[in-house]
Amino acid sequence: MPSGLRILRGEDVYGKEGRTGCSRSQWYRHIAEGRAPPGFMISPQARGWLEHDIDAWIIARVEKGGIDKAPPATPEPYASMVGHNGGPPMKRRRGRPRKNATPPGVFGGPAEGGA
């Protein structure tokens, strides 16, 4: 282009060979959150970005020190292993689950000490 502007297509911006190092889904997530330049439609099915916009975005990320990430959520310890009615953690059985998982004496299961 005579003006020195270059239009980058998706494969030049994201992906393995892209300038940003983002995957396609990650790049569009940045756009949806307002953290990346949205680009413009160069045809009904193709989006393009100006090269200097992408370069400015990369430089801004380097100066900022990367992406703002929320700290990972800290789950309560053993939250998934709490027993019935908030009791102590249940032991997990090894192997495949049983076909009839009802405890003895509940809902027609064999009762303990049965005849």
Automatic annotation (TrEMBL):
Instruction: Write down the superkingdom of origin.
Output: Bacteria
Protein name according to UniProt: AlpA family phage regulatory protein
Q: Extract the ranges annotated as region (Disordered).
A: 67-115
Compositional bias (Gly residues): 106-115
List all Basic residues biased stretches.
90-99
